[in-house]
Amino acid sequence: MQVVLTLGITLAVASAALAKESAVDYSRDIKPILKERCFACHGALKQKAGLRLDTAAMMRRGGDGGPAVVAGKVADSLLVGRITSKDDALRMPAEGKPLTAEQIALIKTWIEQGATSPQNEQPEQDPREHWAFKKPVRPVMPEISNLKSQISNGVDAFVLSKLDERGLAPRPPAEKHVLLRRVYLDLIGLPPTREELQAFLADESPSAYEEVVDRLLRDPRHGERWARHWMDIWRYSDWYGRRHVPDVWNSAPQIWRWRDWIVRSLNADHGYDRMIREMLAADEVCPEDDEAVVATGYLIRNWYALNPNDSMRSTVEHTGKAFLGLTFNCAHCHDHKYDPISQDDYFRLRAFFEPISIRQDRVPGEADPGPFEEYSYGKLRKIQRLGAVRIFDKTPDAPTWFYTGGDERNRVKERGSMPPGVPVFLRFDKHDRLEAYPTITPVELPPRAWYPGLRPAIQATAVADARATISSAEAEIVAATQATDARSTRLAAAAARLIAARAELTSVEARIAADRAKHGETPGADVPALARVASRSERDTALRKTEADVLANERALAIAEAKPATDANRAKEIDAANKLLTTARPAFDKARAATTDTNSETYSPFSLSYPKTSTGRRKALADWIASRNNPLTARVAVNHIWSHHFHAPLVSSVYDFGRNGARPTHPELLDWLAVEFMESGWSMQHMHRLIVTSTAYRRKSGEQDAVSPNLPLPIDPENKLLWRMNPGRMEAEVVRDSLLNVAGKLDPKIGGQELENSEALTTFRRSLYYSVFPEQGGKSVMGELFDAPDALECYRRSRSIIPQQALALTNSDLVHQLSDLIAQSQREKPPDEFVVACFERILSRVPTPRELQICLEALKSQSELLAKTNAADAELRAKSSLVRALLNHNDFVTIR
Amino acid sequence: MKSTRSESPCDCHSPSRRAFLSDMGMGFTGLALGAMLAEDGIAKAADPSPTHLVTPSPLHHAARAKSVIWVFLSGGYSHVETFDPKPALNQYAGMTFDKTPFENPLNSPLHNKRFRSVLAEEINIRDVYPTIYPMQVGWRKHGDSGIEMTDWWPHLAKQVDELCFVRNMWTTDNDHAAENQIHTGRHRLDEQQPSLGAWAHYGLGTLNENLPKFAVLGGPTRSDTRLSIDSLYLGPQYAGVPLALDPKNPLPFGQRKAGQSLEEQRQEYDLINKLNALTAVEYPEDQELQARIRAYELAFRMQAAVPEAIDFSQETEATTKLYGIDADATKLAGQRLLAARRLVERGVRFVQVFPSPYGSWDSHQKLKDNHTRLCATIDLPVAGLIQDLKQRGLLDETLVVFCTEFGRTPGLELRGGGKDGRDHHPNGFTIWMAGAGLKHGYVHGATDELGYHALGEGHYVTDLHATVLHLLGLDNRRLHIPGRKRLEIDDGRVIDDVLA
After folding, report:
1. Which chain B residues in 228-267 lie under 8 Å from chain A, judged by CB atoms?
2. Shared-domain flag, residues A433 and A462
3. CA distance readout (Å), B496 to A276, A382, A505
4. In whole angstroms, what is the distance from residue B199 CA to residue B234 CA?
5. Which of A175, A811, A869, A870 to mutate to test the interface with B (most CBs of B within 10 A)?
């Protein structure tokens, strides 16, 4: 450490010396330091103490305390005093570490040398003028002088104009088989079958490709494929917390219904605006739509039993990042350093969500799960699979406390509860009142929303349950009639049970009638009279049931007493029957006493009741996010969509469109897509069709043989200008699904409760149906190796290449099983036909002559080796090995 | 850099296609293939521009250690009954803190400054136990250095002159998410960060391309402690690779299919490589393809290299005895520590060892029974590890860290009628280190007389991270991904005083 310290000082001195010798360049040496450390408070965003440091002229002018910089006079320059102060309260920057000795030396030298700066230095742009904060307008389609034939749609006009500017010639279209595999993997996440490949290659009609695109977009597997992309962005996670106990702390065991909603919504091409509204506020927007309210799983996913503040932090951060491309989380502890988002704005966004809680509604046809289990310290929360979870506003007046330092214990109660609101710069219609934007209107919920027991499907379930009880009671009568011993008492007990069951049905029907009348669904009905009937019939049912219980227990007692004294169980059974009778008889007496009241209108509801009004906060927020005036929403979404098609986004910082984020490579294209998206009714399928039918999408991905005045590769090696298609790699899920599919083993069943990862190599559902959660075991072994998403946050997937991937694809039982199956299915084919068939099936192309030759040699040599060791079925094993080699081919996992 | 994923909000730093090729998890560079191999150097500089990624740049400074063996004891061992004995606890046993002549630690501003409950205050606040519970074991000074250790460490005590203690550690979580915290530097309620091992992997070059750079033995201990080996935004290839101590199958899919001969598999790999090589002719610029060809070569060799690394059959009986592999109590810890030695010997950079299962040391009750039993499982093996590293000349280039997630309360835990245990104690605890670049037989820092607060500024867990990285030749402040803001709490300070 001594050495290092000394070295550090030497460095600083040396660079100061160096700085003295040569002239300090303001733009190169000074401005970057100030930009990084000072502009947040002394720039366009804020002007603390009236001071701006974003141009040298403004530094010379200074702030409230006088000039910050006096050319040639270090001692008179307030800036130097403040950055070198020994007093922590005075030293700038106020946050973070002091400037380094080297940085201070540079600034001093610059001042000594006269504090020179460029003549035309421009101040920082007004943050409100930032490109992404202004509403996108449809840009004028650029005029292309040549290459006109390559324009399929607007996408191409914008891409080509950029290439044209640089004089770059794009790559020609990809071969048909490459294109087909690309678009299959892109739109449904599976490669084409051999038959689909051959049919497409044979189809010479000019619209053959467009027809394939339409067919794939209609394919239900499309929704499954794209659901996984959005699940990354919306942080889908199955329940977790303490999986090994188990103890549910995070998310919910019924969250998979939200995943199925995503698949359904995409297949139905519901607008993205509608999807946002449903995820944030379906309980306010369409409160009676059971299919839609599960979308609020988006919010439930953030639930953390032990600390609601943590749930709120996740909700604020990821609502900002996912929908708006804004890093609200940066304003948790202090005002945002780059964007005009104050710390107040952070809490105002939180306030939209403050009233929420989770409820658990019975699913028609299933048993009633009862109320949602709130957290109770030290008590395990069980895995509840029944019911559908949804968000509702439970505590409309829950306060949102402002706190400091990112720690909820530091509440600033004097500030009162923070009202919901959005940052001023994103109030796109003129509203200057600070606290009340967007306008929030409370939502009066229909009775079926706040009292789910009123829903016809739930009523029907109750009726069906009662009928089922009658059926089983009737079956018991039949059985009792045929019984050989103790027939009469058994028959009497069964008859009592049947009477009770019939009374139950009457009671259910009466309660339904009363419920419907009470909630205005049967106009003109006499509500109190119906309620009295319901009440009486329910009490009558109780009487019949308790009566049947008494009879059943008396009979059990009689049977036990009739046993010989030597029977080992006799005493125990008598005891048990007596015990039951001591509760059954008083229950019967109580039930009988209760029947005397003829005026009661009280009866049991079919479910819990919840508040009749919702605050409307989340609806207001969702409307604001999904508004066509919101400058960010559509841009952020189309950037994600584009990114999945082209394997690279237009704005590389996909969750940060703020001032510190990346600029788009094609700003006009992004805006054109955003407007197109909104004007199509936020149709994702419209965007998919537009993008995959563009010429840009259909190009070759290879870099070579460019016939061009300027070879693009050296000029744009990273293909930012899209002179070629980007090659992609299958995501973890696609690798597994495609392996299964080429072997014909993929189970096409859609939806349902999540499956365990431990089963992912032995069961064959699509990969999106296996658990995902941010704990050990939250990824399948295959997922772990091929960059499955981090369920805490995954706005973009990583793409690693590691040797363990090779081990999984060569050694796993699954791959061996699948390659055996493929080999087996075509074992009758002669070797050359076998190789061709496997190439088409696995790599969606025929082998080159050289490849064919190598494969035939390998088949031969492998069979010979196996024959030598007397392996059973040497030829088939050699074929299986060849299949495995093709599954391990680079171009199996690669999307060309 | 790691991948095409660009979490960076800043375009100029977005990882390029070249960037993501530069490290392939087992630590080789996709572009300059071979350039990285067997080179000790930093793989990724803080400067993310692609040109800096292709060629390995030197370490931030000269390294003192090549490898780390990080031994983590889950559950929180009692600092006062292990490496920080407190006679005052015996003297004032049964009294409450305010009756002692010392300042009442509960009145110290440090009390609330340092610890933070995961549970919302509305849900539960953990009780504080103020009645002093005496030490459950004797203690004495050991070695030339005269450092105090308790009597539960008879073997390690003989190595005390090799050890370097830090007695003023503190953390902020008073529950077991602190296990993740000592590895990531972050409290459960704050945004999570990659683990220390992942940063080391990220920062260092490879010494053995056939083995993972960051290996994990016996962990993660439980589903919810995955974070202790995770890499999060660095990308999955930097996460710890758990190895099973089964030479037949140490790694998922690390073994060729039963019945398949080596020659048969070799022919299969040959075919894969020939086909990929042909594709490479068609796509000569495709760096991913080049990397994949390389990955298959490595994979083939790993199938032999990884089992060999954990195969003890070449070890002498004296060695296995030194680690206690011959006795039931010490067998598990002994095997894991011997495997750790074999791994660092072969160039693995960071071996994270969990010698005991999750929560083992968590002695709310019957502390004496618990620690008597558990100390006996690890005392001899870890003492053996120190001796073995020393006799092989490896201690000079290996850093051993021995730690737990927090200490235990000086007060008696009364919860549930408790009468013989201590609660979680984040305010002060002890870890020790040994080996490369450290002082020998040295104690740094202290807790107060009652063992309550770490004195002085103490050391938050990231100070330990900074020290470990420093010894590896890395500056933690320069290890970061653009756009992923690390906070000041992540930038620990090197504990200079422990450096030799």
Report:
1. 232-233, 235-237, 241, 251-257, 261, 263-265, 267
2. no
3. 53, 49, 80
4. 8
5. A811
Q: Residue A875 belongs to what domain range?
A: 809-895
Beta bridge partners of A361: A388
Residues A425 and A484 grouped into a single domain: no
Tokens 């609101």 correspond to A421
A420-439 burial, b at 16+ Cβ within 10 Å, e below that, comes to bbbbebbbbeeeeeeeebbe
Query: Which amino acid, residue A563?
Result: K
Q: In this structure, are residues A213 and A692 in contact, taking their beta carbons and an 8 Å threshold?
A: yes
Statement: residue A711 has pLDDT above 70: no
Same domain as A503, residue A390: no
Tokens of B218: 């016996």
Asked whether the predicted pLDDT for residue A12 surpasses 50, the reply is no
pLDDT recorded at residue A487: 77
CA distance B350 to chain A (A): 18
| Tens-place pLDDT, residues B55-85 | 344 688 899 999 999 999 999 999 999 999 9
Pick from B226, B267, B298: CB nearest A861? B267
Q: Cβ neighbours of residue A119 under 8 Å, at least 6 residues apart? A: none
Q: Which residues contact A561 (CB under 8 A, 6 or more apart)?
A: A570, A574
Residue B49 has pLDDT above 70, yes or no: no
The one-letter amino acid at A347: F
Q: Locate the chain B residue with the closest alpha carbon to A808.
A: B253
> Alpha helix locations (H) across A234-307?
256-267, 272-285, 290-293, 297-300
Domain C-terminal end among A84, A118, A152: A118
CA triple B495-B499-B500, angle to 5 deg: 165
Q: Looking at the structure, tell me whether residues A544 and A498 fall in a common domain.
A: yes
Partners of residue B302 in chain A, C-beta under 8 Å: 803, 807
Mean pLDDT (whole number) for B402-409: 97
Residue pair A736/A782 in contact by the 8 Å Cβ criterion: yes
pLDDT at position B23 is: 34
DSSP letters, B190-233, are: S-----HHHHHHHHB--S-TTS-SEEEES---SGGGGGGG--GG
- The answer to whether A382 touches A373, Cβ cutoff 8 Å, is yes
Which of A93, A118, A143 terminates a domain? The answer is A118
- Nearest chain B residue to A378 by CA distance is B124
3-state secondary structure of B68: strand
Q: A168 lies in a domain? A: no
SS (H, E, C) A730-788: CCHHHHHHHHHHHCCCCECCCCCCCECHHHCCCCCECHHHECCCCCCCCCCHHHHHCCC
Q: Does B273 touch chain A (CB under 8 A)?
A: no
pLDDT at site A430: 63
Contacts for A742-748 with beta carbons within 8 Å, 24 or more apart? A742/A191, A742/A818, A742/A822, A742/A841, A742/A842, A742/A887, A743/A818, A743/A819, A743/A821, A743/A822, A744/A821, A744/A825, A745/A818, A745/A821, A746/A190, A748/A221
Tell me, yes or no, whether A314 and A364 share the same domain: yes
- DSSP-derived pairing of the beta strands A240-242 and B459-460: unpaired
**Lowest-pLDDT range, A634-643, B18-27, B460-469?**
B18-27
Report the number of distinct structural domains present in chain A.
Answer: 4
Tokens 């035939």 label which residue?
A856
Alpha carbon of B139: minimum distance to chain A alpha carbons (Å) = 34
Beta bridge mates, B324: none
The answer to whether B200 and B472 are in contact (CB under 8 A) is: yes
Length of chain A: 896
Backbone angles phi, psi at A469, to 5 degrees: -65, -40
Q: What is the pLDDT of residue A490?
A: 87
Within a domain: A30 = yes
Q: What is the fold, at CATH topology level, of the domain defined by B67-245+314-498?
A: Alkaline Phosphatase, subunit A (3.40.720)
Residue A742 falls inside a structural domain: no
Same domain, A385 and A456: no
The answer as to whether A716 is a domain residue is no
